[in-house]
Amino acid sequence: MITTKKSDRNELSRLTGREVDIRTPRDLQGLIRCYGCGAWVKDMKGVPHKYIGAPMGCWEIYGEILAKEYGEYGYPQPTHRLTVDTYAVQHPGKPSRQAIQSVNVHLVRLYLVLKKGLSMKQATTAMGRVLRHSDKFAWLEPPLPNGHITVVDVIKAQNIEEHTKQVEAWAKDVWKAWAIHHEKISKLVKQYLGE
Ligand SMILES: [Zn+2]
Q1: What is the Å distance from ligand 1's center to 39 Cα?
Q2: CA of 49 to the centre of ligand 1 (A)
Q3: Total number of domains constituting the chain
Q4: Which of 24, 60, 87, 157 has the highest CB neighbour count under 10 A?
């Protein structure tokens, strides 16, 4: 559904560098809604990733966020890993062996960190053990909407404190959106990790 929320207008103005009225088709030229996260992004040519389902315009904002994390924020943990997990889960792509594996293992790590309180290092080790059984993973139908917070919100952070807070909120929001599959993920963990 197209809304005329103030946050949407601000988002579109940021992308286009001009005042945008979402009810005016002319103003939406050059923009598309990301088919993963639902954010308004620039309509750019190309397919950025083999199995992560994101259009180039969304991928570009994700790249800006990663650049901030690698650069000025000094590779913050667990924030950086949460960013990677959340983005992958919010852009599940189409059912393929790699996409199925990606969504399952990134959901497993979100579960272990957000719900089981594991450190990122423990969660990553556990994720490796779960990954050995990736041939048994099934396609999980993505929720709609796939969360409400997106890269467009995260990129607005002005410093590492804001960024950390925003990434945590984003990860929790997307995890919550997948509620219908929470039981399957906790079963996977029980089955392969005995936890
Ligand atoms: Zn997106």
Answers
A1: 6
A2: 12
A3: 2
A4: 87
Per-residue confidence (pLDDT) for residue 3, from 0 to 100: 47
Residue 21 and residue 91 in one domain: no
The token pair that represents 97 in the structure block: 């062996």
**pLDDT, mean of residues 145-152:** 97
| Residue carrying structure tokens 């901030």 | 68
Query: In the predicted model, what is the mean pLDDT of residues 101-129?
Result: 93
Instruction: Indicate whether 92 and 164 sit together in one domain.
Output: yes
Residue 117 and residue 4 in contact, taking contact as beta carbons nearer than 8 Å = no
Q: How far is the CA of 192 from the centre of ligand 1 (A)?
A: 31
pLDDT per residue over 51-72, tens digit each? Answer: 999 999 999 999 999 999 999 9
Ligand 1 centroid to Cα of residue 195, in Å, is 32
114 backbone dihedrals φ, ψ, rounded to 5°:
-80, -35
Residue 153 and residue 175 in one domain: yes
Asked whether residue 101 falls in the same domain as residue 124, the answer is: yes
The alpha carbon of 119 and the centre of ligand 1 are apart by a number of angstroms equal to: 27
Q: Which domain holds residue 19?
A: 1-33
Provide the whole-model pTM. 0.87
Does 38 reside within a domain?
Answer: no
Instruction: Kindly provide the b/e burial profile for residues 172-183, where b requires at least 16 CB atoms within 10 angstroms of the residue's own CB.
Output: bbbbebbeebee
